[in-house]
Specification:
alpha/beta; 257 residues; Rossmann fold; globular
Length: 257
């Protein structure tokens, strides 16, 4: 299937590893010019050098001028982004009891505010061109809040509410806005979560992993490439009538439709 991404510009946030890198590679394989970014500048440049048309940008999106610097670097290299993939590291694990205002602010600083700034910077050009894709990497916790992930549940739900509202406002301009929700995908982040759960529960990591796999109908963790394939489709031309939607890529983990 031709996704119609040849010559498009794709800005993929937090793409120096894990899911973000996989999405960037999938978009590059479809012919897009891709911006790889993250706090690890050397790694961003290394990933970019392995792709046919890409640039690596070192940036901290949690500082107020970070998003503007990133969009400026993107525009200088490729032009205004046609595709914006919102992605970022999750906050620390923990229960809802004891979360205070400072904790909530931290979650919003990581999971909401940088994305609001990026959308504000990228959306005008998308509307002017009559074509754009905004895709947020969320979490299965958006569909069913996850235990011991209170801050992630809080921040990602806030972003989901904003994007759903935005989708209805920009659809007629040819801009789609969606979320793609990973379940348990084999990344360094998942390994860290399993290790933390093992330490907290007094079990081994192997025991935690076995228990986790037992909750997934597919019987395994997902591969980043599987998630990236779904992301690339949602960013492509054939997905032009899909907007305001949260699609799960979780092996059946969340049991509601």
């Amino acid at each position: 299937m031709d996704l119609g991404l040849t010559g498009r510009t794709a800005l993929v946030c937090s793409s120096t590893g894990g899911i973000g890198e996989a999405v960037a590679r999938a978009l590059a394989a479809e012919g897009a010019g891709v911006v790889i970014c993250g706090r690890r500048g050397d790694r961003a440049r290394e990933v970019a050098a392995s792709l046919p048309s890409a640039v690596g940008v070192e940036v901290d999106l949690t500082v107020p001028d970070g998003p503007a610097a990133l969009v400026a670097a993107t525009t200088e290299r490729f032009g205004p982004p046609d595709v914006l993939v919102l992605n970022g590291p999750g906050p620390r694990q923990g229960p809802a009891h004891g979360v205070d205002v400072a904790d909530a602010d931290g979650a919003l600083d990581a999971l909401l505010r940088p994305h609001l700034r990026l959308v504000a910077l990228c959306l005008p050009a998308m509307r002017d061109r009559g074509w754009g894709r905004i895709l947020a990497v969320g979490s299965s916790g958006v569909a069913a809040p996850l235990a011991n992930m209170a801050l992630s549940n809080l921040g990602r739900a806030a972003l989901a509410g904003y994007l759903k509202t935005l989708a209805g406002e920009v659809a007629a301009a040819g801009v789609t806005v969606n979320m793609l929700l990973p379940g348990r995908i084999e990344t360094d982040r998942l390994a860290a979560v399993d290790a933390a759960n093992a330490e907290r529960s007094g079990r081994t990591v192997a025991e935690v992993t076995r228990a986790s796999l037992a909750t997934i109908p597919a019987g395994r963790y997902g591969r980043p490439e599987e998630f990236a394939a779904a992301a690339a489709f949602l960013c492509g031309e054939p997905a032009s009538y899909i907007t305001g939607t949260a699609l799960r890529c979780d092996g059946g983990l969340v049991r509601n439709l």
